[in-house]
Every structure is written in structure tokens, then in C-alpha cells.
Input
Amino acid sequence: MFKRILFIGALVCSTMSFTQKNELTLPDAVLQQGRKFGADKMPFFQFIPKSEKFSYLSKFKTLMIGVEGNIQMDSITIDQINAQLGSKLSWFSGFEWKDPSTFYLNDGTNYYSYNTATKKGKLLFTIPEDSENATFKSNNENIAYTISNNLFIVNSAGKQIAITNNSDKNIVSGQTYARSEFGITNGIFWSPKGVLLAFSQKDETEVYDCPLLDINETPGKVKSTKYPMAGQKSEKPKIGIYNILKNSTVFITSVRGADNYLTNVAWSSDEKYLLIAEVNRGQNHMWLDKYDATSGKFIKTLFEETNDKWIEPEHPAFFPSESSNNFVWISERDGFNNLYYYDIEGKLLKQLTANKFVTKEIHSSMNKGTEIVFAATGESPLNTLYYSVTLDGKQRLLTTEQGTHSIVVRSDGKMFFDEYSNHTTPSKSLLTSTTGKKSTVLLESKNKLADYTIGTTEISSIKGNDGTTLYTRMIKPSNFDPTKKYPVLVYVYGGPHAQMITNSWLDGANLWMHWMAEKGYIVFTLDNRGSGERGFAFESGIHRQCGTIEMEDQIAGTNYLKSLPYVDGNRLAVHGWSYGGFMTTSLMLRNAGVFQVGVAGGPVTDWKYYEVMYGERYMDTPLENPKGYEEASLMTHAKNLKGDLLLIHGTVDDVVVLQHNYALVKKFVDLGIQMDFFPYPMHPHNVSGKDRVHLMTKVLNYVIEENK
Output
């Protein structure tokens, strides 16, 4: 059943020290993980174009410029920039190199260029203060942005042009749509040369207006957010194409269904075509379509994919060469994301990779577009490594150290910057040749927790009831005594696309978990089936039955815990947020009595209240899957509650709307069952800022006080 421990490590210096160590406070654990305790890195690292130099930011206020092998570095402070420009920049925001001596930066509304040789700069243009989603195209110095529901550009001459002018607020242009599913992160897509601008437009006329109460006004004011719930009316998308030279716009609409999804927009290298992945609302059929970029007319379907569970394209077509319209497509069609090389007519030229592990994304191309650089887990799903593959399918590993890497490849393809961490390495920054023959360490961070009393973290794995390998993380207190019995806090997420355990510094854990361990707890996490980075079969078992196999695996984890001589099996607590809140409450109700205490934040309580794009992918519609919805609903199981349950919700949550928790609380009231509820007024789906200290104090004190 249980597999041997993979690696164990203490987050302290390995050398014996008798000096008094500092105690980690909860406010520091919550707020300072990425600040005071964050590893030293080289943020915003960039290779300077057409040179062998590089740059990065030091404390975000100083630009460092260097070259490999030269210890002496040049520097420019933001104060020096402000003195020359007459600007009020607080840091090098929006930093981007134009050429070997010129870079861009902005403060969100004012956009500047600065020349390091002449030490002079200029204001390029200013966009309105109420603008959002600004997308700068550096090769022609145009910028597109949104104000309210409309899309604008300011060209290099400083002229503002309204691309859309819709007075109907239900017609929204230039913003992310489909609630950012399908890998959608923006709604503005410049063509390679910046002559054309594609943009998303959505019609939300028929979408439900979900009320959110703003308590900061007197009297309180209802502010609605568009929220399409599973099985209900949804938004209708278009893709617009604006021609700067002609000052005209054409629109692309679905050729198959008004509320199908138009996703993963990509320009061909020659700007003649737009490739769009269309996904049916049922999310089990995808067509990659080619459109004429001048007229917007549909040309042909290049290929299509189907799956009886779901199809979820998350990456646009990647064109590796500026001189060719051949492209690379990431597909999960064989069970794992792999790379497929097509021509612009849809002919499969070559399956470039056939890995039995997950490809995460395409990073770039090198060697004149003949070699593709991509991120993948490699053999261990806990890693993020970088590989390259040639157009004839020859694959090689670029990042040889196990861990979680982030890289930048130089334009000539000869060198890359590599910054990584792992279980024993806070952070290491290197310049490495792509041949692997040369590597220079630029920076290696010390352990910022070395002077603090911190326990140990063990990464291991167990076998689930079906034989699947499930990875686990166990944090023990620094004074752990194997002859004693310890209570356990299980931290859970458990949903798609997420991975709680990684081979990185702190192993994916939050520092508050170490604070909790020092209070005499073991803190345990298990990545169950349904979570990310393990391939389609591992993730898709949840289809139409969210909360079933995930709980089977979590219960396998608790059985493992109870088998350990140092675990008090009568003092188990569970906590999670969002999908983890759904899992926490499900475990308290559908496996009543296993956990004595549960704290659920922002939980989905009934999938019929959740949004169309995510919910229907995993559960289909309530009409199509009534039994699945009923079984997954926490209202169905509320009568089973044993132990103490605290429900938490942000009152203006527009991701998991407050109706979820209110409905469950009402069910408990109807049943005459006592539980606890705590709202966070005016917080959205996550409680952030200084109030997060209040949140984690509430969560952990509740566990400590009730789990006795």
C-alpha cells in the first residue's frame, strides 16, 4: 500500500548550531513568505537584443546590466530615470528592451523610452487613468486598452482611436472571456508586425446578473457581476479584427453554435490568417479553424478532436519561424500533452514528442525556428524541467538539475538563463549554454529560514485503493518525538489543474503550515486523482462525479496517517479553500467522523450554482447529469455532520458566489444542526493583504481549539 519515502529534509542549516533560533510568528509566516523569507533571485531577467549582455532588477528599483564572465556590472536606478524624464516611476514597471541601448517602461498610464548610451529618454504617450488591459506593441509603439466595455488604441503619433463604441454594457470588447478558462488570459492579440489587432468580444445580454453587496456606501449598494451558472444562458463570443491602416473592423462568429467557445487565438507568421480553436458548449468537440485575416471569412477546419469526457485546448498554435506558416499544436489526444507539427493547410507533418509525462507549455523556438523549447514535468510529476525538440523529433533535456525551473533563452539560441529551486535549494541562477558544455552561477540564495526554528518536510508517496501512486507531503515539528502521538491538519485542494506538492523550495507548502507544526501538529497534504500534472487519465476520473474519487484518495491518505504510530487518529482536522473548501466540507459530510474539525473557505456547495465554463466541463449540465449533481451536492449530505465545521466566505466573491455558502448554512438551519460561519466583508474569492493574517489566525485557532 505505502511506498518508501522519496526524500526527507530539514529546512534548516545541516551544520550543528547551538545558537538560539528565532520563532516564526504567524503574521510573518502569512505575509513574509515571498518577502523577508523569499529567496534571492534575479527578477525580470532579459537578454539585451543583438548583444551578449543581459539585465535584471535588483530590489525592483535598480536595473543591473552585465555580460557573462565580467564581474563588474553597470547599474541604473529608478531615481536616475525619474530625474531625467521628470517622471514619478516607483520601479521599473513594464520594462522591455527595444534594442541594445533603448528600453521601455511605464507607470500604467505614461509610457516612456530611455536610451542608456545618451542617458536621455522621452514620454511616448499617455493613456487614460481609467484604462485597463493595456497591451503594448513595441515594434510600432502602438498600445491597445479597454475603458469600461470598449476597446481603444493610441498609435505612435499619440492619437486615440475608438475601435468599438458600444453603449450597451452587455457588449464587452478586448477583455478576457469564458471566465478565463481554456487558457484564456487576455482579450487583445496584436499581429506579429502590429498592423492588425484581433480582440475578443462577448455578448452578456442573457447572462445572469449575480448581486454583490457593497457595504462601503450608505445605504449599501448592490453591484452585479455577470455569472453564467451551469445549464443556464451563457455569453456569446465573437473575434474582431481591426485593421490599423484601413481603420476598419471585421468580425468572426462561430460557424457551429452561438454559445460555443472561440479560444486560443493565434496569428500566422505572415499575418494572413487567424487560427481559432472552437469548442462546443458540451466541451467534448474541438475544431481548429483557419480564417482570412482581412475579411474574417472562414476558410477551413484544419483538424478536429473529440473526447467522451472533455476537450480543453489551453495553448494557441505556436509558429516557430517568422518565415513559415507551419505551426506546433499542443494536444492531450494520446493521454499526455505532446507537440504536433502541422502545415497551414492542416497536414500533420510530424508528431514531435511522444512523452508519457505532461508538457506544460511552449516557451520559445531557437536556431531559426528549427528547435522548440518547452516546459514539462519529466519523469517526476513534481518537477518543472525544460526540453527542446527539433522539427524531426530529436528531444533533449536542457535543465539537468531536478527541481522547478524558469528559463529565458537568448535570441541566438546559444545561451539560456536558468533559475530554479528544489527541496534543498532555495534558488540558484545560472547562465548555461544550450549545448550543456558551459554553465556559470550568477547567484545562489542562502536559506532565509536558517535562523528560525523550522521542522522537517518529508515528500513521499502511497498507493491509492486502485493502485495509483499518490504523492504526499508531511511537515513535522522541529522537536518531533516518534514516541508521542500528534494531531494532524490535512490541507487539501484536490481539483483539476492544481498541484500542491512540487520539487521546489518549501515543496509547495505555505509557511503557516510550519508555524502550525511548531504548535504541535503534523501538517499533511496529498495530491489526489483529479489534480494536475499527471495526465488525462489521472485527472479525468472526476468526470460527472466531482468529489468521489478525490475523497477515496484522501481517505487512503487518512488511513495511512492512522497506520503511523506517532499519529493520533482521533484528532484529525482538514482545511481547504475553493475546490479545497468543497473537498473539506465533502469529507466532513460524506465521510462523517473521520475528521473531528473542518474549516472550509469559499466552498462550492452545489455545482448547479457554479459557472458554466468550468462546471459543465467536469459535471456536464444539471439536466444531463442529475444524479451526479445530487450526489456531489453538500446539501444532500448535510444531515451527516459530525464534529466541528467552520465555513468562511468573502462577501463579494465573484468566483464561488456567496449563494453556495448561504444555501448550505440554510440547510443546516433547516436540519437544526449547529455549525459555524464567518464572512469576510468586501473580500472576493481570496482574502488578501493584511486581512489574510486575520483569516489564518481564525482558521488555525479554530483547529487548535476544537480539535482537542
Observations:
- The domain at 453-706 is CATH 3.40.50.1820 (Rossmann fold).
